[in-house]
Amino acid sequence: MTDSTTLDPAALRMLDAAEALIRRHGPAKATVVDVARALGMSHGNVYRHFPSKAALREAVVARWLHAVVVPLEPIVASPDPAPARLARYIRTLAGLKRQKVLGDPELFAAYHLLAEEHRDAVAAHVATLRGHVATILRQGAAAGDWQVADPDATAVLLLEATMRFHHPHHVRDQAADETAPARLDAVLDLLVKGLGTAR
Amino acid sequence: MTDSTTLDPAALRMLDAAEALIRRHGPAKATVVDVARALGMSHGNVYRHFPSKAALREAVVARWLHAVVVPLEPIVASPDPAPARLARYIRTLAGLKRQKVLGDPELFAAYHLLAEEHRDAVAAHVATLRGHVATILRQGAAAGDWQVADPDATAVLLLEATMRFHHPHHVRDQAADETAPARLDAVLDLLVKGLGTAR
Question: Annotated DNA-binding ranges (chains A, B) (predicted)?
Fold first, then answer.
């Protein structure tokens, strides 16, 4: 997987061009040929950074998913109590996904299609989210907020139990559902209380 | 919506015929003409019971969904403690859906397609499940197991928090995932404990 955070400036310009093409013409247009044409350069130049159309598209998906992760990182690093941060993390994740759908449903649909083709990028994204939640669970265990025998397994559970609110399939269907944030708060309240009983 | 439990024997034979056609030839074959031919009767005879192809297909979907509800009813009626029954209800629901997928993936896919066309039948089914869970929540509140201000709203939450394990979209994707039942148990444990803190 290409990590867009370590790409050089030329590769980043290519990803910008690919994103602009997707925004204007849909996911089919994110090809090496289209990107080269948009930037007025040779195909070979693009291929030096992205050896195939698949590699280019996977990098586009990875960068799109990474944009969701960036605002979550401060929540993991914050010194606030873990129970509050656990709820805030999942609430923020759901809010970011919801904003993406509401802000530009067609772009969301285009990226969702691309993501369906690049399951490795999606798996890496999910692994990042799980790792963050597991870190918060370990911090809470260290602070005596709860006892969690297997933080990695419990992180999977917590993300599964709230998937109605952040899984792209459901976020798309419920974007107009204005009571969803309140329901997520109530589910998080139950889950955090449930964790707290094993103290 | 047609309630298949109140249909007369002739209508039930027509639904049996429609199900046999779906099983053999896929969802496209559940039409009034096909059912009439299969039973050697006139179209008019079928139309007297099901005024349209849509009505016939909706009744087929309703009966299929009702088959999931039947084994759940004794759990609602049981005198066992509500917390155990709440977990058992959702675990059984997930198990029934999983069995349907594993038992005959093609038939499940056929019915899933039909259900996508008949959202009213699906909505009625979901309302039944929510009503059952709300009943168990009220019984638990009456017994002092928990305080639940709005059992109907909490029933929605509990089914949403476990949808990974009973929503057809996810059940189909995870049918081969043998750790799913253990994860559902762990989620139910957290949720029931969370409910129990408001005692």
Answer: 31-50
